[in-house]
Amino acid sequence: MEIDRTLRYGTLEALRFFLVQKLVADRPGPSLVKWLEQVDGTNIKEKILSFKMGVAAEDEESRHETIDNIGAMVSMFAMFCSKIPGYWYTPEDFKVLADAVSREMETIGNTWKFWVVTAQK
């Protein structure tokens, strides 16, 4: 990923690209039901949730918590990836991404979509 990808696609889109394409290529959320069916899970229940983040959040507490949490996520990936020799996403790339995510959350906000899936075996 080039640093200018943030400018072309939006900050959170750049983070989503990093997370989905580079870390979890087989997106777990949409795949969870299929995976549970493959291991003979029963009573499978899926609920897709979403919530607004940053300035788009429903209340002040959610605004602060979502900004802090996504910032912590970027920091965590930066820390782990910095331990991989020659990793393609440099510490400077992560710094640029963290600053851009923080700025975007404070000015635009976003929506986080995720899957909650339960099953029995």
UniProtKB/TrEMBL annotation:
Q: Which named protein is this?
A: Uncharacterized protein
Q: What is the lineage of its organism?
A: Eukaryota, Fungi, Dikarya, Ascomycota, Pezizomycotina
